[in-house]
Amino acid sequence: MSAAETALPALATSLTKADFLTDYRLAWESRHASLAGRKEVFMGKAKFGIFGDGKEVPQLAMARAFQNGDFRAGYYRDQTFMVAIGQLTWEQYFAQLYANPDAEAEPATAGRAMNGHFATRMLDEDGNLRDLTHTKNSSADISPTGGQMPRLLGLAYASKLFRQNPELHRFTQLSNHGNEVAFGTIGNASTSEGMFFEALNAAGVLQVPMLMSVWDDHYGISVPAEYQTTKQSISAIMAGLQRDGEGEPGFEIYVVRGWDYASLVDTYQRAAAVCREQHVPVLVHVTELTQPQGHSTSGSHERYKSKDRLSWEEAHDCLHKLREWLLAEGHATELELDDIEKTAAATIKTARTAAWAAFFDPIKAERDEAVALLNKLVADHGTENSMHDLVEQLKTNPTPIRADIVRTLRRALRQVRTEKRSAGRRAIQRHLEQLLAENADRYNSNLFSQSELAVGNIEEVPATFAPGAPQVDGREVLQACFDANFQRDPLIFAIGEDVGKIGDVNQAFAGLQEKFGELRITDTGIRECTIIGQGIGAALRGMRPITEIQYLDYLLYAIQILSDDLACLQYRTKGGQKAPLIVRTRGHRLEGIWHSGSPMQMILGSIRGMHVCVPRNMTQAAGFYNTLLRSDEPALVIECLNGYRLKETIPANVGEFTLPLGRPEVLQTGTDVTVVTYGSMCRIVMDAAKQLAEVGISVEVIDVQTLLPFDTDHLIADSLQKTNRVVFADEDVPGGATAFMMQHVLDEQGAYRFLDSQPRCLAAQAHRPAYSSDGDYFSKPNVEDVFDTVYELMSEAAPEKFPDIY
Question: Which of 805, 779, 778, 774 has the alpha carbon at shortest distance from 791?
Answer without folding.
Answer: 805
